[in-house]
Write a structure and sequence with these properties.
The complex is a heterodimer of chains A (364) and B (419). Chain A is built from 18 helices and 2 strands. Chain A has 364 residues and is mainly alpha-helical. Chain A has a two-stranded antiparallel ribbon. Chain A is globular. Chain B is of the alpha/beta class. Chain B has 2 domains: 181 residues, Periplasmic binding protein-like II (D-Maltodextrin-Binding Protein, domain 2, 3-Layer(aba) Sandwich); 176 residues, Periplasmic binding protein-like II (D-Maltodextrin-Binding Protein, domain 2, 3-Layer(aba) Sandwich). In chain B, the strands form 3 sheets. In chain B, strands 1, 2, 3, 6, 12, 13 and 14 form a 7-stranded mixed beta sheet that branches. In chain B, strands 9-8-10-7-11 form a 5-stranded mixed beta sheet. In chain B, strand 4 and strand 5 form a beta hairpin. Chain B is globular. In chain B, 49% of the residues are buried. At the A-B interface, helix 1, helix 2 and helix 4 of A face helix 1, helix 3, helix 4 and helix 16 of B.
């Protein structure tokens, strides 16, 4: 196997092309290596070292500490573990709500503005896309004003007789609040007594805090426009004849969307979900400019915690370790949804109507 | 297969070369481990100018520091450049990692331990000509492992700020200014009306801790060697605050739509607040029409108590010209310089010899300086900032929380830091 390859490479008149190929890609490889691969590997080393932020992480005073940084986060029993657990809890709820809502909303908007009969489609497309091109810092500041205790949102709620919460200062969990309405103030002992990553299961189930909910609304508001654009592009690529065929077969609008249009959007759906997952797990700007993790640490996220551990607490190893755990989480989630969205053979149940034996389907 | 292997080899080779290059860059200075020469001579490479990094509160402070540094630069003949950091912690950290830090910089108490423990800071406190002039409690805030690291720049204490108009409207006189916890509860109740609450405070340790100090407690002992967070005194302090909250005579600023106590006070959402002397600037700029007076916080069961906050002038261990930096810091903490600073942007001088001058220049603010006699510092052990932010998170729901349980968790976290 290897011999022909080698001879062909030597003798081929195209032999020189390999060298030129390398030459032309070299600048990019060097740039990517320098600013991407090497820093990532350096950070990986830092996460296994006791580097404390002074001088080079490769100097002789820095030593390898094994998985100490990781074990402090995942089972140290101290504040580091508790903070990490809290950050994961907050971000998990954020992802759980942001990703499905923004995907559904952006698909809905895309279908809406893709309709031929809609007047002023250009206007709506621009309007929906507008939040996406505005800087997240500017939107965060706007949000802080809108959702202040005497802000526009609460004024609006007061108008319809609702006493709005003190959004960015309310650390109470939404699910806990809903349970509180039904008189459930404290969880069962099975939930409050046992804990994972330093916080009890009852706290895991608190839901996003009211403050985090405001950030969830903001994420949905800002990113739906971007994903709407992806869905519009995909929708415009679909050929009309498949839909026409479905019409001829008597499928109604609802069936056409679910059975014909949506399956064809699968690659775009995968892109949107993946980008959404990654963006939602890495949420940082909003927290940094908005709440810095407060109130009651309920808007702390792993990305912000990583920054805080490193830059304010000089726990650089732990900060890097958080970043890599976050990386693993994102990869696992992406693989999982890749598996969910994978093309599969049509199930036997679905196939049954089409597998009629020739005799029974015979002459009608 | 062969081809694939060779590709891998090339890739790995490129990567190794890259990594080695970076390593070489990182440790290029070579002598990275001998910089923390606290016992030896100070470096004095006079060819190098000084870089000063400050976290400024505003234009007044920047201009004032610039002027003071320029004056020193002129007399000493050493170049000096002041930069204002947008994110002080981050810029300091980058400088230390690159071993090209600013020579002189603002340093907060909670950042001290982290930088001191990794050898980034020069422990120059004992070399200061005026070291005995600093308030002892400030010196202990900047002492880590027995070494006095850096000269306190200035300090603030918390006291009670009273809106004089609302005070008079409620029929209260100077004789009613509270001196005990009961007195404070009573006037807070009198001052609470439909539109305003008697007392507004920030819902965090840096304000509520004053109640703990009045009850005689503190999170750690004076040396910072032992956690004392769940002492009966601290519990009593928080329980008192909880009572005021539940009686509706005290509110957190955030609960009444203000960002901090000063804003609630300025907007007259509250008749009193507990803040430090930084409030004077905010009142002057944002709420010039609100008249107020400053009183010492009422005494708790264990007498007077308050919290103090301070920053220091850090000097980098990697600075090539430590001698000049030390000289600059001595100049910036001298009586003249500190009196000028306080005139121009309001901080309280960190040296005792300037106290009388400051008091006569600021007669209405005397209670703040009086606090220096009994004020307690905030914990400065490494990692304490995290513990305090965790405490702050729990204090946000103090109204319904259990003070003992809150402080027990703080005790557990602090013990983990000092063991």
């Amino acid at each position: 196997m290897s011999t022909p390859v080698r001879t062909s490479r030597r003798s081929s008149i195209r032999g020189g092309e390999t060298a030129s190929g390398w030459l032309f890609t070299a600048p990019m490889i060097v740039l990517l290596g320098m600013f991407l691969v090497v820093p990532v590997l350096m950070a990986l080393w830092v996460s296994f070292s006791d580097w404390n932020g002074r001088g080079s992480p490769f100097s002789s005073t820095v030593s390898f500490v094994g998985v100490d940084n990781y074990s402090a986060l995942l089972g140290g029993g101290g504040l580091a573990e508790q903070d990490f657990g809290t950050a994961l809890r907050n971000n998990a709820w954020y992802v759980l709500l942001v990703v499905p809502i923004q995907t559904m909303l952006s698909l809905f908007l895309a279908v809406l503005v893709n309709r031929q009969i809609l007047r002023g489609r250009g206007f709506f497309r621009t309007a929906f896309y507008f939040p996406s091109v505005t800087s997240s810092v500017a939107i965060t500041v706007l949000w802080l004003f809108l959702f202040s205790s005497t802000g526009a949102v609460n004024k609006l709620l007061a108008f319809i007789g609702i006493n709005g919460p003190n959004w960015f200062n309310d650390p109470s969990g939404v699910l806990h609040n809903i349970l509180g309405v039904f008189g459930v103030e404290n969880g069962p002992a099975a939930l409050t007594g046992n804990s994972f990553l330093g916080i009890s299961f009852w706290e895991w189930l608190a839901g996003p805090s009211v403050a985090m909910s405001a950030f969830i609304l903001m994420a949905v508001f800002t990113t739906s426009g971007t994903f709407m654009l992806l869905f519009i592009a995909a929708l415009q690529n679909l050929s009309g004849d498949v839909v026409e065929a479905a019409v001829m077969d008597g499928a109604n609008g609802w069936q056409r969307f679910w059975r014909v249009t949506l399956p064809q959007l699968r690659p775009t759906l995968f892109t949107v979900l993946t980008l959404g997952l990654i963006g939602a797990w890495q949420v940082f700007d909003q927290i940094y400019t908005g709440t810095q993790g407060g109130p009651g640490k309920t808007t702390l996220t792993p990305a912000y915690l990583s920054y805080q551990s490193a830059f304010t607490n000089q726990a650089w190893g732990q900060g890097a370790a958080i970043a890599f755990i976050l990386f693993v989480i994102i990869v696992v989630f992406t693989l999982f949804q890749r598996w969910v969205l994978a093309e599969r053979k049509v199930s036997a149940r679905r196939m049954r109507p089409y597998l009629q034996s020739p005799t029974s389907g015979g002459f009608k | 297969m062969q081809r694939r292997n060779s590709r891998w080899l090339i890739g790995a080779g490129l990567f190794t070369v890259g990594a080695l290059t970076l390593t070489a860059c990182g440790s290029g200075s070579g002598f990275s481990d001998n910089a923390a020469n606290t016992d030896g001579e100070l470096t004095s490479d006079s060819s190098q100018g000084l870089n000063i990094l400050i976290g400024s509160s505003g234009d007044a402070e920047t201009a004032s520091v610039n002027a003071a540094v320029a004056a020193w630069s002129k007399t000493s003949g050493t170049d000096a450049k002041v930069s204002v950091a947008s994110d002080l912690n981050q810029q300091l950290a980058q400088g230390f990692a690159a071993q090209k830090p600013a020579d002189v910089f603002y340093l907060s108490t909670d950042a001290l331990a982290g930088y001191a423990s990794n050898g980034s800071l020069l422990a120059y406190g004992n070399d200061l000509a005026n070291k005995d002039d600093f308030y002892p409690s400030l010196v202990s805030s900047f002492t880590y492992d027995g070494d006095f690291y850096c000269a306190p720049k200035d300090f603030s204490t918390l006291q009670l700020i009273i809106n004089t108009d609302l005070w008079a409207q409620a029929g209260l006189t100077d004789a009613d200014i509270p001196t005990t916890w009961d007195g404070l509860a009573t006037v807070s109740k009198t001052l609470t009306t439909g539109t305003q609450v008697g007392l507004a405070v920030g819902g965090e340790y840096a304000r509520l801790g004053a109640f703990m100090a009045e009850a005689g407690g503190s999170l750690m002992n004076a040396d910072g060697t032992e956690a004392t967070a769940n002492s009966a005194e601290n519990v009593a302090g928080l329980e008192y605050a909880q009572t005021l909250l539940n009686d509706g005579v005290m509110s957190y600023a955030s609960d009444i739509g203000a960002g901090w106590g000063g804003e609630a006070f300025g907007k007259q959402l509250s008749a009193m607040t507990i803040e430090g002397n930084w409030i004077t600037g905010a009142m002057q700029n944002d709420f010039p029409d609100v008249k107020y007076t400053v009183a010492e916080l009422p005494a708790g069961p264990e007498g007077k108590g308050t919290l103090q906050f301070t920053n220091c002038w850090g000097i980098a261990a990697d600075s090539p010209n430590q001698a000049a930096a030390l000289d600059l810091v001595e100049h910036l903490t001298s009586k003249d310089a500190q009196i000028t600073f306080s005139k121009e942007f309001g901080p309280m001088p960190s040296i005792m010899s300037a106290a009388e001058d400051w008091k006569s220049a600021n007669p209405t603010l005397v209670p703040f300086l009086n606090g220096a006699d009994y004020a307690k510092g905030v914990p400065n052990v490494q990692g304490s900032a995290d513990v305090v932010s965790d405490l702050n998170a729990q204090l946000e729901s103090l109204k319904t929380g259990d003070p003992q349980a809150i402080l027990d968790s703080v005790q557990k976290n602090l013990e983990a830091l000092v063991k």
